[in-house]
From TrEMBL:
It comes from the Bacteria. InterPro entries: Glutaredoxin (IPR002109), Grx-like_ET (IPR051548), Thioredoxin-like_sf (IPR036249). It holds the Pfam family Glutaredoxin. This is Glutaredoxin family protein. Gene3D superfamilies: Glutaredoxin (3.40.30.10). It comes from Paenibacillus arenosi. Residues 5-63 form the Glutaredoxin domain.
Amino acid sequence: MTESVIIYSIPTCGDCNHAKRYFKENEISYIEYDCETDEKYAKEVMDLTGKQIVPTIVIGNKVFVGFAENLTEISDLLK
């Protein structure tokens, strides 16, 4: 898997924490951007999705809003 994985999150987001736990358990490296501590990341999420919602996960050129509901597609993409 050569695609880069970026997750936009906030510390109190359960779905964000679930996604990060999944990435760690499956040894998938990722870059995390905390939208709570740096508002430029919140703006990037708005630019990517048109919404203020986390987790927003970017894998290559695909953007996923939410983790649990996209788990199958994300895991297929990361195989």
